[in-house]
């Protein structure tokens, strides 16, 4: 297995923490604080980004975009891909599968594009995967959590890899949902739980996995309701749930629905905690109505508490991006660095042409990538393309802000 050396990555992170900007000119990318430059005579290679950079989920998408830009700038500063300058091309999918698929097809048709960081939404990934499968263009998602994307519909009983060019750097719903349930039932003592989803496949799957574990632990699912992602008035559903006298509400949705849902629940006198998945874990959930006591389980460990994440956080802040890195920026940064290292290995054996055999070679390099020094610690992939990093964290809204309360790996019992 090819491993990115700790020394190389540590050097990259250290330089990244020290740099505030990258200066480019004269066909070379200048090394910040130095007198030399990088040979970019072989041209420019592109890392594509597909994420929701406008609309309800823009806070997540913009953090993804900025984090990839940071990784690209650092790679250019350290001459990571010999002979080439790297460029980011970010496309806004608006969380729309058709727009995401169209962007992916454009990237696949461009020989200079070496890979895609994206998408965030699992529904968008479902549309992208078949579009680019035959081209072998690498796709590494910083946010997809639907286990079916890698292991198929029968992922629990008969897992089968779906696309060998698809990877992700986050844990999946069949682990995240149960991790949430163990905390809510075991840690918070909730026994009567209502479920509200937005009807999307990933939300339904997360809720199902949550419910199975919650019931195994002795909780009762008192009701399961759906809202529409375009709804703004949830009073009928919440009134029905209130009559069921739940101890908590689990919601399989993102912050754009979860926040208003929490606010309207409180307005109806339904003063129970709302718990959800990584889609809730954003400051926007609180801004839109999330309350003290509300809970979210999310992928990874708190980035600012990881020794390997400190350099990313420092470098990101020094860049003064208009937007924060959000819950998935560090994962996008790691995904971009996988591509940077892997394309460096492929081009060391010959100039990049974008030929099918080179893209296939790049897929193999990504599959073999392994480090414990990513921003999120472990970065690597199993035989299905799933992340080897199985860490999850439960966060609770405390004094108007998210506070981490428990981190660990979900182990089936």
From TrEMBL:
Q: Where is the Leucine-binding protein domain?
A: 45-398
Keywords for the protein's UniProt record, in alphabetical order: Signal
Source organism per UniProt: Nonomuraea mangrovi
Give the residue range of the signal peptide. 1-20
**InterPro entries xref list:** Leu-bd, Peripla_BP_I
Signal is among the record's keywords: yes
**UniProt keyword Signal present:** yes
The family classification in the record reads: Belongs to the leucine-binding protein family.
Q: What is this protein called?
A: Branched-chain amino acid ABC transporter substrate-binding protein
Q: Name one Pfam family in it.
A: Peripla_BP_6
